[in-house]
Backbone:
């Protein structure tokens, strides 16, 4: 009996193609990797921000911080999340729109984890004042979303293309990563009363010591990072880059320190400039460490 040729073509050739099977497996693995990364981001955000989720000053800040300062904080935080997704992230071939979506996803994780945690701790209740709840969520979601984004970034950090992107970005990229690192470290201290106490207890001698220690610390970390970087090749160029990025990195750290203290109402027109200086320099020790290590964190 002769087989019917028409029956041999009932199954399209593309369905039996090994390439098609690989594509399907790639899509499946890609979706699975993305889901795993976001789950890891939620856990990472919770681990990073748990002390702040259980900090009274953060709860108070939800209704004490004026709305315009919260809005500025959210905008700055979204920029930090975008930086984290640009220089690492899960998928290195994303477009700018894709990176924006990834940053929005990280912030969404921050909001969701904050809501569930505050509800579990009975800090947020059914029937609570809407302004209070929104303020708490916007504030708490900042450290959670940064922790989530760092965790997601580390999930894809082994990709050689993502690693290469950090090496070729130059001075602007280094400062962007310094901003992200300073926010990552500084937010753990800025909301607390300790930031005020440290500023009030410092003397002019302490301020000078903290300033010099911060600058030395920045240069030591930048030295370790830049001298293994491929951005410069000649010795003179490396030393120039070290000095430029060291000073600029500390400037970014001080700016972030001042911004965070302003956000939480620690500094302002009603605070003397000496107390303001002391608090900024004290917190600058923390933010400078984060700024210098920003490229290592991402």
Residues:
């Amino acid at each position: 009996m002769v087989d019917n040729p028409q029956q041999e073509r009932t199954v399209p050739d593309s369905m039996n193609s090994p390439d098609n099977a690989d594509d399907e497996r790639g899509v499946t693995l890609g979706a699975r990797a993305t889901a795993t990364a976001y789950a890891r981001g939620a856990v990472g955000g919770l681990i990073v921000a748990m002390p702040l989720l259980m900090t009274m000053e953060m709860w108070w800040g939800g209704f004490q911080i004026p709305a315009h300062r919260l809005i500025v904080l959210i905008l700055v935080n979204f920029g930090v999340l975008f930086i984290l997704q640009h220089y690492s992230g899960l998928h290195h071939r994303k477009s700018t729109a894709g990176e924006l979506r990834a940053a929005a996803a990280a912030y969404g994780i921050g909001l969701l984890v904050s809501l569930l945690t505050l509800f579990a701790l009975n800090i947020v209740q059914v029937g609570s004042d809407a302004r209070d709840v929104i303020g708490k969520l916007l504030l708490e979601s900042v450290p959670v979303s940064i922790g989530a984004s760092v965790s997601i970034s580390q999930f894809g950090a082994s990709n050689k293309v993502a690693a290469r992107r950090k090496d070729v970005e130059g001075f602007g990229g280094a400062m962007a990563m310094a901003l992200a690192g300073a926010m990552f470290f500084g937010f753990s201290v800025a909301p607390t009363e300790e930031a005020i106490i440290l500023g009030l207890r410092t003397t002019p001698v302490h301020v000078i010591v903290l300033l010099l220690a911060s600058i030395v610390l920045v240069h030591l970390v930048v030295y370790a990072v830049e001298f293994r970087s491929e951005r410069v090749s000649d010795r003179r160029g490396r030393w120039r880059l070290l000095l430029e990025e060291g000073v600029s990195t500390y400037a970014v750290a001080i700016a972030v320190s001042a911004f965070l203290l302003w956000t939480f109402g620690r500094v302002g027109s009603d605070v003397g400039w000496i107390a303001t200086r002391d608090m900024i320099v004290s917190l600058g020790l923390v933010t400078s460490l984060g700024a210098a290590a920003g490229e290592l964190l991402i």
Confidence is low (pLDDT under 50) at residues 5-29.
